[in-house]
Amino acid sequence: MKTPINEITIIVVLYEEKTSLIFRCLENIKNFKIIIVDNAGNISLKKKVEEKFKIYKYILNKKNYGYSKAANQAIRQCDTEYILMFQADALISNKDILTLLESRKKYEDCFMTSPTYYDEESKLNYSSGYLPEKNNTKDILNLEGDVCVEGVLGSIILFKKKDIFELGLFDENFFLYFLDFELCRRIINRKKSIIQIFDAKVQHVHGQLKVKNLLKNTFIRNYNFTFDELYYFFKINKHSEIFSNLKKKLPNYIIKSIINLFLLRLTQCVYYFSKVAAFYKFNKLLNKNNQNN
Questions:
Q1: 149 and 194 in contact (C-beta within 8 Å)?
Q2: On the chain, which terminus has fewer CB atoms closer than 10 Å, C or N?
Q3: For the CA atoms of the chain, what is the radius of gyration?
Q4: Are the beta carbons of 51 and 23 closer than 8 angstroms?
């Protein structure tokens, strides 16, 4: 018999999260069909997880492909009508997941539903708002009911498999940042709505990359944020100012990276180096685009 629970596949993308965090996350969603993609390729973790939970499909990647590519890998493996993208640093109940599903079915022209986020102290947290090109302050919406928004955090979002394929899946040029807002912009361009659901509540900790190695964490965060921001604004032809400002700072960043290396201030060295590396990656993309045009 078809029930709401087996209408949904939950996709969890992992990269070096603590086992305790993953177990806490999976305990709350264990009644659903689950696909895990581990960008750290942790075989030991896979064995531990599968000893405790029933996982529909478990994909181990040989390297960190980033969130977009991993998400698309899993979406292609789904065989349910609905998909819930889920990050391990969130807690959601079965009831709240089903509220997202019921709302998605209820609202006409709705492409995607997203919950309302709270922090570990039950204080209202950032969930949604304007797209970055309009307002990047991330003000918290104090809701009294469901609301249509321009952009939502991609930590927990529910949509139809058919819809995401028609939209073109996630843009795999994004590694970790801005990909949710870019997806939302494409949804809006198709005259579909994105709705934050007031009664679907989630506990979530924002913006904490779980990589233990400080230097690796610093590089992943700053390299990918810099590139992903440039690429996001490139897609709407508003990247010139950000790119020019970074280009002006480049000589200074190179010098600071070298100085901090000699002073053994490795975190600062990696920070500046990540900005330089992201600039050259984006510049290569620009040159390729110009050649194709």
A1: yes
A2: N
A3: 20
A4: no
